[in-house]
Amino acid sequence: MASTIQVRVDDELKAKSDKLFKDLGTDTTTAIRMFLTQALAVNGFPFEIKRASANPYEALTELELLEKLEKSREHAEQGLFRDADGVSRDMRAKYGL
Questions:
Q1: At what angle do helices 28-42 and 11-23 cross, to 10 degrees?
Q2: How far apart are CA 26 and CA 17, in angstroms?
Q3: What pLDDT does residue 31 have?
Q4: Longest dimension (CA), the chain
Q5: Cα–Cα distance between 36 and 31 in angstroms, integer?
Q6: C-alpha angle with apex 52: 56 to 62, nearest 5 degrees?
Q7: Is the pLDDT score of 23 beyond 80?
Q8: Residue 54 has pLDDT above 80, yes or no
């Protein structure tokens, strides 16, 4: 016997999900079945759930961070930089600091 699960989602989310799963060779119903199967297999959510970090650099590897720093040095040498007060003001507004 099969059960039915009904979920209400935003039209845009549904359309984007349908397109994504079609591009991946499946459909939304199958993707939801896969999610439920994986949840049972791992005894929880099949992906990490956490709050978004206020620090945009937290997810960078050391190499990625060093590459960004090098690019910043190059920009500074070329005179491509912003006033620190403006940058701080923008970061506080953007990240709620």
A1: 80
A2: 11
A3: 95
A4: 69
A5: 9
A6: 35
A7: yes
A8: no
